[in-house]
Amino acid sequence: MSVHALPRIAIYGAGRVGGYLGARLHEDARVTFIGRHRVIDTLRLSGISWSDLHGGSGRIGAKALDLQLDPFAAAKAHLVLVTVKSSATEAVAKELA
Length: 97
What we know:
Layout: E1 8-12, H1 16-25, E2 30-34, H2 37-46, E3 48-51, E4 57-60, E5 66-68, E6 79-82, H3 89-96
Parallel strand pairs: 1-2, 1-6, 2-5
Antiparallel strand pairs: 3-4
């Protein structure tokens, strides 16, 4: 399947939960990670590693990740997964509206 035929998914909140979901979806979708400077800077340096309770694991290098700071990066996504802390959900909803 062409990369252009893959669904576009934005992960708003690129921390632990968003990082895991995005990493698992990365093989089958064009994933954009949207997060805070600290998180995005770390991902730009290290990429992302994941593991699950069944012993599965993987790693995606930083160059293969679409890392963004601007919420507008979600505009072209077919699906936006909001994975921020509950206290930030209302503010994120206003940014995405």
